[in-house]
Amino acid sequence: MNIAVIGTGYVGLVSGVCFAELGNRVICVDKDTRKIDILNSGGIPIYEPGLKELSEANRAADRLAFTSDLPGAVRQSDIIILAVGTPPLPNGEANLSYIEEAALEIAEAMNGYKIIVVKSTVPVGTNERLSDLIRRRTKHLFDSVSLPEFLREGSAIKDSLQPDRIIIGVDSPLAADTMVELHKPLTEQIVVTDIRSAEMIKYASNAFLATKISFINEIANICEKVGADVTQVAEGMGYDKRIGPAYLKAGIGYGGSCFPKDTRALIQIAGHVDYDFKLLRSVVEVNQGQRFNVIRKLETIFGGELQGRTVAVWGLAFKPNTDDVRDSPALEIIQFLVENGVKVKAHDPVAMGNFQALFGKEGVEWCNDALETAQGADALCLLTEWEEFADVDLKQLQSVLNRPILIDGRNVFEEEDLLGTNFVYYSVGRPSLNQGVKEQLPALPFVQNL
Length: 450
Ligand SMILES: NC(=O)c1ccc[n+]([C@@H]2O[C@H](COP(=O)([O-])OP(=O)(O)OC[C@H]3O[C@@H](n4cnc5c(N)ncnc54)[C@H](O)[C@@H]3O)[C@@H](O)[C@H]2O)c1
Ligand SMILES: O=c1ccn([C@@H]2O[C@H](COP(=O)(O)OP(=O)(O)O[C@H]3O[C@H](CO)[C@@H](O)[C@H](O)[C@H]3O)[C@@H](O)[C@H]2O)c(=O)[nH]1
What we know:
binds uridine-5'-diphosphate-glucose; N-(1-d-carboxylethyl)-l-norvaline Dehydrogenase, domain 2; UDP-Glc/GDP-Man_DH_C; NAD binding; UDP-glucose 6-dehydrogenase; Rossmann fold
């Protein structure tokens, strides 16, 4: 099939490359000419494992091209996939200006029947609004499809080529058949729904996963007080098929360009129809607090006095295997430390440039590797579970730190890693591993009035 993908970011680029890999002819469009120049010279503007190789192979096979000429790409294609950003507005609602602008450009460029597909995450009803916009600008016929995307950064190629399911929201049998045909090679699990339900499936899925994370983080916080181990609790829960083991890793809360944005957007979607989504508001609140547990632990260790300390930070990306720092917990944690007079040293294997672009270069000492970051610091906080950090020998780490204090925000280290060290060690929801700060567990009250 002939496909144009509008927006060549984390989603559009991966989707475009994967549709080409299936044998389609794909033109990826972006108005950011810097990105298009990088792509046309054989580079990849983002860090995503496996993407460069797959892109190169499909360009060489003449199935994949990159351009900033949107009208040209639309005219050569039968299916137009919108994958532009829908970032949050200050009140949490999705900013639809990019997608509306792109829809109008498509309308102006149309030269015949097209299937116009929205892969961007958009509030319920947006596909219909976009269709109205387009209809007013073109005499040509088209069908609308909502095709929500479920890939995760860091495993985006695998998620795209072996998805758990494909959701196709559509109201035209012709467009439904074409979209099923396009996705058939990927999975048998293709669910065709109405357009509004498809839009809602995306938000509901992200909100549910975020809820699992906030739930296990609260369980972790309780584990710390009652002397249970959250990793064992999660394992035990996960064997129940009705619960499942995924998204039960306690840590410093979820970040990234999706969960924080989409949970807040769903609260707004509900609010617009006079529904107070209380559960999801709590999920967001719990997540916000979870980030600051790292700070609370530092304050406990330093007797409340952070001013003048040197703190090393390992990890700036919101998760490993990506350079994306959008809504990364590291942004708020480092901001707080710097504002409170802490000297921060930081390192991330790939996300340092993006972090500096958002945070600024000032106020933080940027380091080249894990041990250089730890050198001379009064404490170390691990915020992203990159393999590079998990591989560090803790005895060597202890020898370069000024004080052996390790706050492990991702439960990377195990009891055996700590053997032979005398770290003050705090992780998340695993009080039995806390070293050097053995707190007396309170006797549990027999009856509690809550
Ligand atoms: N990042 C993810 O993991 C992920 C996963 C699933 C869904 N989504 C959703 O997919 C959408 C895209 O997310 P992303 O992370 O890829 O965003 P992104 O910011 O990485 O990429 C968006 C791209 O669109 C381009 N763009 C904007 N307006 C344009 C126009 N008029 N013409 C051409 N290009 C234009 C921008 O220059 C940018 O390169 C969002 O709605 C997001 O919520 C993202
Ligand atoms: O058990 C877990 C799992 C994840 N996280 C955190 O949750 C965030 C999101 O992680 P992940 O889901 O792996 O990455 P994303 O790339 O943000 O992917 C999510 O957001 C995308 C954009 O909507 C969706 O397409 C994906 O299905 C959805 O998983 C990260 O900060 C993780 O550290 C946890 O804290 N504990």
